[in-house]
């Protein structure tokens, strides 16, 4: 039995799902913004072995961008039995605790009625809202950490709330200590359809990008792909484009932002571009789905983020033979080997990004070596198969502790 977005559990009796020896894995999402966690979760949900696991996808916001994404991909979901009242980056005060406690009377019976063996959360708000509910309901809680190791939740909540923790990189993993989740953490890289990228013709993709922004064929296309948040340094991206123009005035260049903005950072980036005299070189493309045809059309992807656990677009660019220039920060060095699979530069230094671009543009042999080596290595490391195998091993370990809570139709 499956569900569509039309099902509203707040208006009807909560049904049960699953059958046979399948274990129900609940994937809750807020639904108000699409990010890398949703793309990675989508790949996992689509590739879970249905003979062993039944995904129960739950959205607090069934008319938002995450719902649109899941509909396009044919992922069935249900509405959460309670509205989310926890704001993004919620303050560490009593109000956040009160909001979490308010959800328990609805979420606990929901999990029990659906016989959820595991609750797999993927962002800060669902860690808190659903993690406590899982504990009370008797479900196992897997906290999938995609932030950095200094986050408050990882340091203060993860040591006691989840049963297990998975981090997307070594950088994102908790540090050992007297009060730490390090002992129950595994590193599992995000999943990618590594062979899907073969279907994109880069010449055609580049022509399409040029046509979309109205630039001449000799324009170098630099991309920023991801949500515009401070950690990802969108302002630095603008400054890198300006530095390239200053260091090489004869080079025609366009900087393209692909992604939605938070906290007015798109306006801040526009203002910075105007102040630097390159407003005509910066293009705000918004969130584009699928993103592969756009990434394939770039001459280089600039990963300006600092303390980024492990960005998806970095790996996607490598699979698409788009060269990557990344800040030597966070989880980037776990993927990019300087001069071999990409280029690493000093973080927060726009001139270093610009100089790397000029080296890349002037050395065809280096560029060819980088993209070929990068594609080969990430294909071996980031496949769906490896990710699903690693995550389902964690699932089975969790269920083996006290046994599997079978679906309602499987009997005692």
Structural write-up:
This protein has 412 residues and is of the alpha/beta class. Helix content is 39%, strand content 15%. It has 13 helices and 13 strands. Strands 3-2-1-4-5-6-7 form a 7-stranded parallel β-sheet, sandwiched between helices.
CATH topology of the largest domain: Rossmann fold
Q: Going across the biggest sheet, name each strand in turn.
A: 3-2-1-4-5-6-7
Count of beta strands: 13
CATH superfamily of the largest domain: Glycogen Phosphorylase B
* C-alpha-based Rg, rounded: 22 Å
Coarse morphology: globular
What is the tally of helical segments? 13
- Mean pLDDT score, rounded? 89
Instruction: Report the order of strands and helices.
Output: EHEHEHEHEHEEHEHEHEHEHEEHHH
What keyword list fits this structure?
412 residues, 2 domains, seven-stranded parallel beta sheet, alpha/beta, Rossmann fold, globular, 13 strands, disordered C terminus, 13 helices
């Amino acid at each position: 039995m499956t569900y569509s977005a039309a099902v509203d559990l707040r208006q009807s009796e909560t049904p049960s799902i699953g059958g046979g020896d399948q274990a129900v894995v609940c994937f809750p999402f807020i639904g108000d913004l699409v990010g890398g966690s949703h793309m990675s979760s989508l790949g996992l949900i689509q590739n879970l072995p249905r003979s062993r696991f039944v995904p129960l996808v739950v959205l607090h916001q069934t008319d938002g961008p995450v719902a649109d994404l899941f509909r396009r991909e044919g992922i069935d979901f249900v509405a959460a039995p309670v509205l989310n009242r926890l704001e993004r980056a919620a303050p560490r005060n009593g109000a956040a605790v009160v909001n979490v406690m308010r959800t328990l009377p609805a979420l606990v019976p929901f999990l029990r009625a659906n016989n959820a063996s595991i609750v797999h959360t993927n962002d800060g708000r669902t860690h808190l809202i659903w993690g406590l509910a899982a504990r009370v309901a008797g479900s196992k809680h897997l906290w999938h950490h995609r932030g950095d190791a200094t986050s408050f939740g990882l340091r203060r909540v993860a040591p006691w709330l989840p049963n297990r923790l998975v981090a997307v990189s070594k950088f994102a993993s908790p540090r050992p200590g007297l009060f730490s989740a390090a002992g129950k953490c595994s590193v599992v890289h995000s999943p990618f359809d590594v062979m899907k990228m073969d279907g994109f013709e880069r010449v055609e993709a580049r022509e399409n990008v040029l046509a979309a922004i109205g630039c001449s064929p000799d324009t170098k296309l630099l991309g920023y792909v991801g949500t515009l948040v401070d950690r990802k340094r969108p302002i630095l991206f603008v400054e890198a484009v300006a530095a390239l123009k200053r260091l090489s005035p004869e080079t025609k260049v366009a900087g393209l932002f692909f992604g939605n903005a938070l906290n007015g950072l798109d306006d801040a980036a526009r203002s910075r571009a105007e102040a630097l005299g390159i407003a005509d070189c910066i293009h705000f493309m918004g969130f584009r789905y699928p993103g592969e045809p756009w990434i394939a059309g770039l001459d280089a992807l600039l990963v300006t983020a600092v303390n980024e656990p492990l960005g998806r677009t970095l790996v996607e660019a490598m699979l698409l033979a788009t060269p990557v220039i990344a800040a030597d920060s966070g989880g980037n060095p776990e993927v990019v080997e300087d001069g071999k699979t990409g280029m690493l530069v000093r973080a927060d230094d726009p001139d270093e990004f610009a100089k790397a671009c000029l080296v890349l543009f002037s050395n065809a042999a280096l560029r060819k070596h980088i993209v070929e080596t990068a594609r080969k290595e990430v294909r071996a490391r980031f496949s769906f198969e490896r990710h699903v195998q690693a995550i389902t091993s964690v699932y089975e370990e969790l269920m083996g502790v006290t046994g599997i809570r079978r679906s309602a139709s499987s009997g005692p």
